[in-house]
Amino acid sequence: MKKFLVPTDFSANSTHAANYAYQLAQQLQADLVLCNAVIIPALTPQAGLVLWPMQETELLLSDSQEELKRLKASIQQHDHTDKFRPDITFIEEAGVLTDTIDRIISTQYIDLIIMGTHGSSSLSSFLLGNHCSKMIDNSLNSLLFIPPAAGFKTIKKIAFAIDLENADNDLHELFQLVPLAKALNAEILIVHIQADKNTSTHFEQRIDQFLMEVSNKANYPHIYYRNIKSSQTEKGLLWLCENGQVDMLAMLHRQHSFFDSLFNGSHTKRMVSRIAIPLLVISA
After folding, report:
1. What does the CA dihedral 95, 99, 103, 106 come to, rounded to 10 degrees?
2. Is 98 domain-assigned?
3. What is the CATH number of the domain that holds 54?
4. For the chain, what is the domain count?
5. pTM of the model as a whole
6. Kind and range of the H or E element at 283?
7. Residues 106, 165: one domain?
């Protein structure tokens, strides 16, 4: 991994995520790109709206640039080690966050997008939650969400939540996780949440077949499996994160139809708002 993109709105949670990203970049010898999307009230005239003055737009962008400079300096001033020092660049741009990120990704290769999650206040939870939700739905890059409670520490075990009933579709995404685990020298724990109390012989054979295929193709010996019985997916995963000595949780996110999303929602989106350790979202 060579470059991480870190969106920020200069809140305490996004600043915490930026500091986490710097330490992870240090460990993986990657560089950082900080970005801030400046919302302009009216970029084009519309009925009932007044065109936002260009001078005001330039002032907002200038303020954003100064804040990014201060954030960069704040991140670097805490680095007193002789380790690899990530290069930090920054981009400020008028527009919506997802559009800004798309433009950045179209001009330079980004390995991972790292951003903060919800705050404690209702307003910050709503705004950050909205950003997280949109990023999960729209990003083709892997996303690493950093909760406020997640302090940086060496990643020794990554739990990969998978539906082993339909595991054939998840092999590609699992193999995307292997390079990161190798770079971190971390274990991958494949986790299946099972609602039924009893495990059928057919399902056990399915697990053995899947793990054999993983072992043959992944070329990484530190991959293990654990079955967790829980009536609710999120409840089982939260229990694992709290009791399973897991340092990071990885989940797949698949696009759903409008009605499916409306009535069933997304396990990934719900976990973003509840988890206390870093959550890696891989787009499937």
Report:
1. 180
2. yes
3. 3.40.50.620
4. 2
5. 0.85
6. strand 279-283
7. no
